[in-house]
Amino acid sequence: MSETPSSRLAALGIVLPTPATPVANYVSWTRSGSLIVISGQLPLKDGKLLATGKLGGEVSIETGVEAAKFCFINLAAQLQSAVGDLTKVTKVVRLGGFISCTPDFTAHAAVMNGASDLAVAVFGDIGRHARSTVGVPSLPLDAPVEVEGMFEIA
């Protein structure tokens, strides 16, 4: 039996949560042709932010990496909601990461690897993606990280 995204998630001990609902005038995801674009996801764990604050301040790089991982878990939950079955994903096209940080913080890429590494762990080679990672002065609810994604589906 070949590995699937769902079996890889299970092997990692990850159970996808109920997708978060939008809190403003936007949709959680939208489809255009074979692309699914998912709105930015916060690092929610059991419905609560994993951490608050800024990288380079009160949030460590290790906590930031974990936050980015939970952002990707929430992206995957939205994606499953959108397509019904993660085996329909043919490519993780792009991830965009926003890191709330102090002006002197420069380890954005290391933090975003939490999401990128999990994308590859869950989707294998099709999980390798293009990416942008930027530092920002603040994020909704004082979250330290937010990640958005674009996925190709069959």
Automatic annotation (TrEMBL):
InterPro entries: Endoribo_LPSP/chorism_mut-like (IPR013813), RutC-like_sf (IPR035959). It holds the Pfam family YjgF_endoribonc. Residues 7-143 form the Endoribonuclease L-PSP/chorismate mutase-like domain. CDD domains: YjgF_YER057c_UK114_like_1. Transmembrane segments: none annotated. SUPFAM superfamilies: YjgF-like. PANTHER family: ENDORIBONUCLEASE L-PSP_CHORISMATE MUTASE-LIKE DOMAIN-CONTAINING PROTEIN, ENDORIBONUCLEASE-RELATED. This is Endoribonuclease L-PSP/chorismate mutase-like domain-containing protein. It comes from Acetobacter nitrogenifigens DSM 23921 = NBRC 105050.
